[in-house]
Design a protein that fits this description.
Layout lengths: L37 H15 L3 H14 L5 H26 L2 H14 L7 H7 L3 H12 L2 E6 L2 E6 L13 H15 L3 E2 L2 E2 L3 H17 L6 H6 L3 H6 L7 E3 L6 E3 L1 H12 L8 H15 L6 H13 L2
Antiparallel strand pairs: 1-2, 3-4, 5-6
Helix pairs in contact: 1-2, 1-3, 2-3, 7-8, 8-11, 11-12, 12-13
Length: about 325
């Protein structure tokens, strides 16, 4: 399943210290290079951000500058600049996606992917080495410089923000955005769905959805609350997807029964629940299991009635 415009999410990757023992310290005549103040770093980033509206090169510079200087600003500045960078990338993402959605680009990548083997992950270094078309190579290099990664679904190739790179920002930003970075990095490193099917385990799907619910509980006023809600996947959690349904059809009867793996995953999640954990999703799984055990694991109107208000809550 492709991620929606313009937030196809989707996304490229610190310190070494040493201690001298029994060393006599003497005054140094070397003058250290001046360290930029937080105000100067913030101002320089804003200069790049303003120019990035019309200049791809300025967005590239803004991203690299933040990666190299985020440790020199305070948490509020670091958080704001991190969110501004994500906003800029999302705007540019739509443009790059549009440029990639051409027969020339799609054919070039498809041919190389076939030569390399479809089981191989697409890396910029390999693609830039194999692809000869200068227009395609230029676009790939730009996508790499902008911090995007390539994904493929339903035979199409498209960019997403590489949130794994944002992990470098976590020690410097406020707690809600550090948690948000973890959520988005998990999604960009391994998508939840592809080609209409859920491509992670049911256990992993539940874990991811619970982490997003915990974010909403812990940070209800976060700048990224709405964004996390968009990635809740509550429908997948309780009904599955088109190609990975949670309930299987019997051939000759209007009866659907839960996939045993889904039921086991619900039971496992509830068994791991910590005392006093606030979770509407876990409460809902518990209610569903009670009905399933009373109705031969069949999907009943009662189960649908249990799920419906939860779907509405997380819309």
């Amino acid at each position: 399943m492709r991620w929606k415009q313009p937030a196809k999410l989707a996304l490229l990757a610190i310190a070494v210290g040493c201690t001298a023992i029994n060393t006599i310290l003497t005054p140094s005549t070397t003058v250290a290079a001046p360290v930029p103040t937080s105000k100067a770093v913030y101002h320089q980033f804003q200069t790049y951000r303003t120019a990035a509206v019309k200049s791809t090169e300025s967005l590239v510079k803004a991203r690299k500058y933040l990666m190299n200087h985020i440790d020199k600003v305070n948490p509020w500045q670091a958080t704001l600049m991190t969110l501004q960078l994500e906003n800029m990338q999302n705007v540019k993402l739509a443009d790059v996606d549009h440029q990639m959605y051409t027969e020339q680009f799609q054919q070039a990548l498809s041919q190389v992917h076939e030569q390399l083997g479809y089981e191989q992950k697409l890396t910029y270094s390999r693609l830039l080495k194999e692809i000869k078309n200068p227009t395609v190579k230029k676009l790939l290099q730009e996508a790499s410089d902008l911090g995007f990664k390539l994904e493929t679904s339903e035979g199409l190739y498209y960019p997403i923000i590489n949130y794994e790179i944002y992990q470098k920002f976590k020690p410097f930003v406020q707690a809600d955005i550090a948690a948000y970075i973890d959520i988005m990095a998990t999604e960009s490193n391994q998508m939840t769905t592809s080609d209409g099917g859920i491509i992670i385990s049911w256990n992993e799907l539940i874990q991811r959805t619970l982490e997003k619910e915990a974010f909403l509980n812990n940070f209800p006023n976060s700048n990224r609350t709405t964004k996390v809600k968009q990635w809740m996947f509550v429908d997948y959690l309780f009904y599955g997807s088109d190609n990975t349904p949670a309930y299987d059809w019997y051939t000759d009867e209007e009866i659907r029964t839960i996939d045993p793996e889904v039921k086991k995953a619900y039971e496992k999640a509830l068994a791991k629940r910590e005392p006093n954990t606030k979770s509407v999703l876990l409460d809902t799984m518990e209610k569903i299991l009670l009905v399933l055990n009373q109705n031969n694991d069949e999907l009943t109107p009662e189960i649908r009635a249990i799920i419906e208000p939860v779907q509405q809550q997380f819309e």
